[in-house]
Amino acid sequence: MSASGDDGAEQKPSVEVSKDANGLDVVILKDPRGFSAQVHLYGGQVTSWKNDRGEELLFVSSKAVFKPPKAIRGGIPICFPQFSNLGSIEQHGFARNKLWSIDPNPLPLPTNIDDKAFIDLILKVGDEDMAKMWSYSFEFRLRVTLGPHGELGMTARVRNIDSKPFTFTTAFHTYFSVSDISEVRIEGLETLDYLDNLQNRERFTEQGDALTFETEVDKIYLNTPTKIAIIDHELKRTFVLKKDGLPDAVVWNPWERKAKAMVDFGDDEYKYMICVEPAAIEKPITLKPGEEWKGRQKISTVYSSYHSGQLDPIKVLESLGSFG
C-alpha cells in the first residue's frame, strides 16, 4: 500500500484503514490533489469516489442500510457469482454482502502503480451459508486504485481452486451520481442488441442515436465497446467508462414506482442516479480447475467535454490513460 510522505517531502497517495459511522471497516484512498475513494470491506464495495473539489461522483441512497446482511444500496456493489435472481443464490449473488479481507498476498504490481493509491482485497469460500448456495472453492481478488487524475480503477480476478469446473456471471453494479436523469444521455450503446429485463429478457436492437431517459429502464446491452460515455448536460460533466473482459453493459434506473417500493431507496432518488454496469452475463464464464478470469473497469471524468451531443475525442483520450 502507498503511504504519505514525511513532513516537507513530496506528498504521495495514501491509504488509511478506518471505521465508518456504523462501525464497519473501510479503506480510504487519497491523492494529494484532493481526489479520494472509500471502500467498505463489507461487500468489497466502493461507496465513495470524490473529485478534487470534494464532489461525490457515485450515488449512495440516503436510505441505504449499512448493517449486514443487507447489501449497501449504491456505490459499486459486486455481483458474483450471478447477476439477477436465479436458483438458490440470492439476487446478484453473495459477494456484495460478505466480509472481504485485505489481501495478504496480492498479485504483482504493475510498474506504473507508484502514482496511485490502491488496496487489494480478497474473498474466499469458507462461509457455511455461502457453501450451501454455491459449493465451489474459489478466490476472488479485487484491486481498487485511485489514479493521479482522480480516475477510479477496479480489477477483478476470479480463480478456480476447486477440483471441478464452475460457471458464473458477474457485474460491477456502478451507481453514477447525476444532476437529473432527464439531463443524462449515454453514448456508445446505440445500434446494439440488448436483452430487456422488463420484457422477460426479450432481445431487441437499440434504435436511438443515444440513450436518454423518460421511464424505467433495465437492459443488458450485448457485445458493447470498451468505452462508454455518460454525459450529464446540466453539470457539463462526462463519465468515461473503460472496460476489459466484461463484454456486456447493464443500464438501470428504477423510476418512480419501483423507487417507492424499495425500502432502502428514497422515493425521488431515481432522478439523481443511473447505473451503467460492465458485466459478463449473456455468455457465462466457465473456469476449469486452476484457471483465472480477469475483468477491469476504469472511470474518469471529463468536464465540458461534449459539443452537439458528441464527445470531444481529444479530451476523452487524454482522460483515459492505461489500466492500473
Automatic annotation (TrEMBL):
Listed InterPro entries: Aldose_1/G6P_1-epimerase, G6P_1-epimerase, Gal_mutarotase_sf_dom, GH-type_carb-bd
SUPFAM superfamilies associated with the record: Galactose mutarotase-like (SSF74650)
Domain of life: Eukaryota
Active site (UniProt): 173, 277
Gene3D superfamilies reported in the protein's UniProt record: 2.70.98.10
Enzyme Commission designation: 5.1.3.15
EC top class, as a word: isomerase
Positions annotated to bind substrate: 73, 91, 96
GO BP annotation list: carbohydrate metabolic process
Catalytic activity: alpha-D-glucose 6-phosphate = beta-D-glucose 6-phosphate
Entry GO MF terms: carbohydrate binding; glucose-6-phosphate 1-epimerase activity
Cellular component terms per the entry's GO annotation: cytoplasm
Family matches, as Pfam families: Aldose_epim
Keywords, comma-separated and alphabetical: Isomerase
Classification via PANTHER family: APOSPORY-ASSOCIATED PROTEIN C-RELATED (PTHR11122), GLUCOSE-6-PHOSPHATE 1-EPIMERASE (PTHR11122:SF13)
Family the entry assigns: Belongs to the glucose-6-phosphate 1-epimerase family.
Protein name: glucose-6-phosphate 1-epimerase
Native source organism of the sequence: Adiantum capillus-veneris (Maidenhair fern)
